Amino acid sequence: MNDSLEIKEINLREAFRYMGYKGGEINQGILDLTDQCEKALLKAIKPRMVYRVFDIMNTHEGVEVKNTPLIFRGKDIKAHLENCGRAILMCVTLSAEADRLIRSYEAESMEKAFITDTLASAAVEQACEKAEEIIKKQVGDYSYTWRFSPGYGDFPLEVQKDFLNVTEAAKRIGLNITDSLILIPRKSVTAVMGISEEPIPPKRRGCICCNMRDKCQYRKDGNHCGF
Amino acid sequence: MDFKSLLKKEFVSLDGAMGTMLQARGLKPGEAPELLNTENPKILTEIHKEYIEAGADIIYANTFGANRYKLKGSGYSAEEIIKAGVKNAKKACEGTDTLTALDIGPIGQLLEPTGSLTFEEAYDIYKEEILAGGDCDIIVLETMTDLYELKAAVLAAKENSDKPVICTMTFEKNMRTFTGCCISSMALTLQGLGVDAIGINCSLGPRELYPVAKELCRWTNIPVAVKPNAGLPDPVTDAYNITAREFAELMEKLVPLGVKLFGGCCGTTPEFIRETNKALKGKKYVNIPHSIPAACCTPAKTVIIDRPRIIGERINPTGKKRFKEALLAGDTDYILGQAIEQVKGGADILDINVGLPGIDEKEMMIKAVKAVQGIADVPLQLDSTVPEVLEGALRIYNGKAVVNSVNGEEKSLQTVLPLVKKYGAAVVGLCLDENGIPKTAEGRFNIARKILDRALAIGIRKEDVYIDCLTLTVSAEQEAAGETLNALERVKKELGLKTVLGVSNISFGLPDRIRINSVFLTMALTKGLDLPIINPNAESMVSAVRAYNVLAGHDLNSAKYIAAYGQGGVSAETKADAQKGDTDLSYALENGLKSDGARITSELLKTSDPMTVINDILIPALDKTGSEFEKGKIFLPQLILTASAAQSCFEVIKDFYAQRGEKSVSKGKIILATVKGDIHDIGKNIVRVLLENYGYEVIDLGKDVDCMRVVSCATENNVHLIGLSALMTTTLASMENTVRLLHEHNVDCKVMVGGAVLTPEYARQIGADYYARDAKESCDIAKKVFEEFYPQG
After folding, report:
1. Which of the residues A203, B171, B464, B592 has an alpha carbon 20 to 30 A from that of B271?
2. Torsion sign (Cα): A214, A216, A220, A224
3. Residue B572 — pLDDT band, cuts 50, 70, 90?
4. Total tally of structural domains belonging to chain B
5. Which positions 171-200 of A are in contact with B (Cβ < 8 Å)?
6. Is A1 inside any structural domain?
7. Within this chain, do residues B149 and B243 fall inside the same structural domain, yes or no?
8. What is the distance, to the nearest Å, from the Cα of residue B512 to the centroid of all Cα atoms in its chain?
9. Residue A213: its chain B contacts at CB < 8 A?
């Protein structure tokens, strides 16, 4: 199921946004480098995913993921999974090759490293989009919430360790976590999608569920990207 | 019964899954199965017995994840859980011939440089497991995806136990592990380390693993083990998709490949093992002796010495002032730059020599090897005359290395060859001994033969001995060139060994040395030279090898030659630089033209003082880009581009000073560190480039830096400005801690902090003096701090 996560081209608009681009002319040298880095990155990475579907239940402690030690605490995840009887726990990684390429660029040229880092951030989002499509196709014709990741709102990052254990992410896709809760390979995402038999009313997403919210230049400037 | 006698059987039967069996008995996903060793030993003995009844010759104790790291917070120690696990398995084996294996899986933390666990820590964790499992009959290291982690485990097993070791790794359909390790590298490295059987387990079913098993069998002559999953799992039900019968049929197909040990991984049950044993009954083990070629490797890349391969010689301080300076300053970045340049130039293998009076060679060697193997995917040749240095490097090298060198002297043979054997490396043998370098080809040939005999005697493969017949200076002794080439030819033809030669020495004392070097290289290649040690940045040397490979028929359809010299072979940077022949320095900086920048700087230095170049051209150009960045006219990549180009100019200036034995001017020392627990350091590295450009001397402590290390470094080096970065909310506490410790120890310094999750308020709250919004602002802060508070730097 991993072959289909292949990314053919990177969403450069997103990548430039992550680079802090706010309009205007882009130097040809940067465009050439971006092209070169994009090719190298796409050649290097091997995006992978793993997911499991679980029944969930609301308890006073939080949302209990049945038959596992996981309990999702916090009001945001609870609201997110409202009216959902099941949830998908998914993990996506671009693979350690992305880290390796960025690292070797850092020794060669910092601009290539930086550009590749942002390209990889855009790529992992694209891999998540693809993973979501595949999962929905495999799980069936239900209503799904969007992807909600540990660290969004008050959904604690501390859940990551058990999250990876339950999905066997280390064994199945090579995704690990450090003591300070950093996912390794670095360009990786974990997320929860609720499954409901009933239609799910659309909710505004906002910055709370954007993986770039910490680094976003728009946010730092007090603005919003409009998504 | 022991493992050796077990191998006399036609096939060896391994057990099937433990986790699957436990989950069927109520274990939940995500729970640690190893805790049952003490909490419910009965259930484990029962499962083991079921596998023994199904015909397993070896059962794996339930100790896969029983390491210090994974058991943290469980209330049990690794020792308790492992001892109990082995005991349960042993109990099940009572009265049978079945052997108990101590089962060891990955730690669950990735090793440096991708993760934060050091090789030495990994070794220590495994050592604890091996010692705790002392009662087992066999040690199994399985489901490994990182060859480096596996090497730590193998060394821990071999150095703390005398039990046989079986290693199995987990591969994907693309024939690589998650960390990119390929099959040939796995086989070369592990066989070199002296394990007793190797193989594959988990990830896929026996159908998908067939090509993996086929490739593995081709690369090894020790017994091969295969333990596949019961097909592929369903994400909704978690059920695996093939039956015991199908599994057995597919396993049977592995027999002709030469597989010796058969078992099952996730999803398999005693029924799968029973069916497999049934299918194998009456079949004969197929023992195919393979000739394993001469080769060295990194995990992701195997370099087979089946044609001339270039060994890059540049990482060596001999005669290089700038290199010596970098070594004395412990500056590995300089070494990394040399590594990248040589790989781009065409090096297949890199020689690493950091021997210099006044430095701790072993420590520096380990540091250099770790750094280079983290960024360059080429095998390394570890070059030192000191056995302790060689051992230090061999231990932490990731893959199969080349040792440079042993020679015919008794002392050298006795100290170096055992290291080569223990760590499974290849070795360069120099044709010299107690009496120096023999003048004649005959004399050198005899030493080569002696080295070979001694290597074979302690179990080093013939393919792993490369002979260096030694190049002498032709201007001193004209007939010497002929003797070297004759010796080389004889070693190659009569002993059948690979040959290596440092070429450049030939022309010492002559003008325009490269002409002599390239012709001598070509002569040596026609005599059978396999491994020329050359400067890969010297185009005529590299092109001689490439052209030779075409003419000798090694480079099929001249593909590599065309790739290097056809239209597509010119890199984007060279193209960009070439467009503008007569550009000025500011233009080069603005457009990030590194080689132009360096070239123009050297030109300028012929007529101008370095300080004038820095103050009148470099700094104003940087200031201009900096202010455009602040105004939002350009964005970060452009700022970094200019900074990198400026860096190449500064490199020329540093070189200029080094040649004159002068110190470059520093505007002040700054420590940079990404705090403890945090491994996102690209932002910090960008800050470093900019600060260095403005003339500050940066002591970069790297990432995941211990809080106290910042304090001691600041005190020892008398540093007054410290920059700390953190990218995760989870690591801000380490930043606060570091700032607090700096204050507690009364370090006379200012602290600036930055990083994605920081805010000016938080910076103030934790007691930092400045909040740096971006890399440019760090430079402004540095300027202010040194002007206002520490004008002495």
Report:
1. B171
2. negative
3. very low
4. 3
5. 171-174, 176, 178-182, 184-186
6. no
7. yes
8. 37
9. none
Shared-domain flag, residues B632 and B718: no
Cβ contact A110–B178 (<8 Å): no
Query: How are the residues of chain B apportioned to helix, strand and coil, as percentages rounded to the nearest 5?
Result: 50, 15, 35
How many angstroms separate the Cα of B598 from the Cα of each of B191, B336, B574, B656, B692?
46, 18, 13, 12, 16
Do both B652 and B729 map to the same domain?
A: no
B483 domain residue, yes or no? no
Its domain, for residue A190, covers: 26-199
Would you state the structure tokens that stand for residue B617, as one six-digit string?
Answer: 């051209």
In a mutagenesis test of the B interface, which of A114, A157, A173, A193 is the best target, namely the one with the most B β-carbons within 10 Å? A114
The answer on B759 and B646 residing in a single domain is: no
Pairing of strands B531-534, B311-315: parallel
Which of A69, A111, A184 faces B30 most closely, judged by CB atoms?
Answer: A69
Residue B76, both tokens: 């049990």
B522 pLDDT higher than 70: yes
Q: In a structure prediction context, what are the per-residue pLDDT tens digits for chain A, which is 227 residues long?
A: 445 799 999 999 999 999 988 888 888 889 999 999 999 999 999 999 999 999 999 999 999 999 999 999 999 999 999 999 999 999 999 999 999 999 999 988 899 999 999 999 999 999 999 999 999 999 999 999 999 999 988 999 999 999 999 999 999 999 999 988 999 999 999 999 999 988 887 765 666 666 666 666 566 666 665 55
pLDDT at B582 over 70: no
* pLDDT tens digits, one per residue of B526-555: 999 999 999 999 999 999 999 999 999 999
Same domain, residue pair B81 and B163: yes
Task: Clarify whether residues B781 and B673 are in a common domain.
Answer: yes
Residues B267 and B175 grouped into a single domain? yes
User: Is residue A133 situated within a structural domain?
Assistant: yes
The stretch B576-585 carries a mean pLDDT of 56
Tell me the pTM.
0.91
User: DSSP labels for B396-463?
Assistant: H-SSB-EEEEEESSHHHHHHHHHHHHHHT-EEEEES-BTTBS-SSHHHHHHHHHHHHHHHHHTT--GG
- List pLDDT tens digits, range B130-170: 999 999 999 999 999 999 999 999 999 999 999 999 999 99
The range of the structural domain enclosing residue B652 comes to 578-659
Task: Tell me which residue has tokens 């201007």.
Answer: B475
Instruction: Determine the 3-state secondary structure of B225 from DSSP.
Output: strand
Residue from A123, A143, A105, A117 nearest A189 by CA: A123
Is B544 within a domain?
A: no
| Structure-token pair, residue B118 | 């050091």
> Looking at B262, B280, B298, which one is the last position of a domain?
B280
Residue A59 within any structural domain of the chain:
yes
CATH of the domain at A97: 3.40.109.40
Q: Single out the residue of A209, B275, B444, B208 nearest to residue A225, CA to CA.
A: A209
DSSP A25: P
CA–CA distances in Å: residue A149 to residues A74, A163, A200, B120, B540: 12, 11, 18, 34, 55
> What is the rounded distance in angstroms from the CA atom of residue B228 to the CA atom of residue B206?
5
What's B230's domain CATH number? 3.20.20.330
- The string of DSSP codes covering B576-593 is HHHH-TT--HHHHHHTT-
First-last CA distance in chain B: 72
Of B659, B680, B702, which residue constitutes the final position of a domain?
B659
Domain contains A7: no
Q: Are residues B632 and B768 in the same domain?
A: no
Whether B717 is in a domain gets the answer: yes
Give the Cα separation of B83 and B136 in Å (integer). 9
In tens, the pLDDT along B590-616 reads: 888 888 889 999 999 999 888 888 888
Measured between beta carbons, the chain A residues lying within 8 angstroms of B576 are 29, 32
Chain A residue closest to B115 (CA)?
Answer: A184
Q: Which of A2, A108, A171 sits opposite B143 (nearest CB)?
A: A171
Interface check for A40 against chain B (CB to CB < 8 A): the answer is no
